[in-house]
Amino acid sequence: MKGDLEGNWQKxxxxxxxxxxVSPAAGVLNYGQGVFEGMKAYKTADDRVLMFRPEENxxxxxxxxERMSMPAPDIETFLNAVKQTVLANKRWIPPAGKGSLYxxxxxxxxxxxxxxxxxxxxxxxxxxxxxxxxxKGGLSPIDLKVETFFHRAAPGGxxxxxxxxxxxxxxKTQLAAKGKGYSDVIYLDAVENKxxxxxxxxxIFIVKDKVISTPELAGTILPGITRKSIIQLARSRGxxxxxxxxxxDELLDADDVxxxxxxxxxxxxxxxxxxxxxxxxxxxxxxxxxxxxxEALTSLQMGKSKDNFDWVVELD
Length: 316
Ligand code: PMP
Description:
Oligomer: single chain
CATH architecture of the largest domain: Alpha-Beta Barrel
EC number: 2.6.1.42
Shape: globular
CATH topology of the largest domain: D-amino Acid Aminotransferase, Chain A, domain 2
Number of helices: 7
Number of strands: 16
Bound molecules: 4'-deoxy-4'-aminopyridoxal-5'-phosphate
CATH class of the largest domain: Alpha Beta
Structural class: alpha+beta
Enzyme class: transferase
Keywords: Amino-acid biosynthesis, Aminotransferase, Branched-chain amino acid biosynthesis, Pyridoxal phosphate, Transferase
Cofactor: pyridoxal 5'-phosphate
InterPro entries: Aminotrans_IV, Aminotrans_IV_CS, Aminotransferase-like, B_amino_transII, BCAT-like_C, BCAT-like_N, BCAT_family
């Protein structure tokens, strides 16, 4: 689908997966005007196709686009395009319990622009791919490393937007950590280098004495849809959940730590390394709260438990 800076969009159509042709002067190539979303579709045992809170992704795309001076398709257009794309690819959705279809809506500045300014034209497209679990080993605790030199986002920057330019700086730290056997990196705040922000592609929670805490949305972390859902889900199950600054000391002193995101779903953390200190949680086994919330979330997403929140959307 193509649109202009004023937000007038032409009608889109389904196309086979293939290369794009863009100007070398495209806004996305030169000035990073690109935002995206990550969503999943699940197949149930009786062949229904389910999605989780897709309107939240539509809303977040609008907010991310606004931060990057880009027009975005409206909520209804976004949802219709996602639905059409998923149903056209139904045969690629793995059977129930075997994975999901990852959906990548991408909005980029494709119009040419030489001087620093928003591109005159935009392209909104969606591509999909079947996926299994994000981290190797499925629901098994991961080892994370706290990054103390590089930062993911600065106050007043673009950390709260799902923009492509937030991911390039992460590649270097993530690669280095993976090279040392860690699954991913935990970023700290750029001002005091003391408060936990998030992981390269997921939000983080700690549990201490049955109280759950997660870094507050202060403009430098992505407002994860899984994060928001886990907060609601945990509260509905009687947990106290706080959104507040979480220090790295508290992280290392927690009883249970887990990450949340569309790709990772909910993944327990087995150990965290900060400098020369390494802390293991639950002797490297899955923590009780992680396990409980993982089951509550996934049974909802896969249509196995009653959806009291009205979060699950069936495509037909
Ligand atoms: N933080 C970052 C940086 C991410 O890329 C993601 C994945 N979208 C998340 C958090 C989790 O967000 P969500 O639960 O909406 O997938």
